[in-house]
Amino acid sequence: MAEWKREIRELAKGFCIPREIVINVIKRVEKKNSKREMPDFYKGNRNDFLYDNAHREIKNLIYA
Length: 64
Fold this sequence. Notes:
Blueprint lengths: L2 H12 L4 H14 L13 H18 L1
Helix pairs in contact: 1-2, 1-3, 2-3
């Protein structure tokens, strides 16, 4: 499992977000960003790019 996925799962676990929701967020982020071009400031680091997108979705769940 990729490091970004592990970190997202730990983050979600800390906020008691159900595992099923986290799995769906991870799948959605991977699918949505599979062909999307990364901004230059990521310098080709796809893991950071995917983590940031998943973090944004998890944050929206926390604040909802």
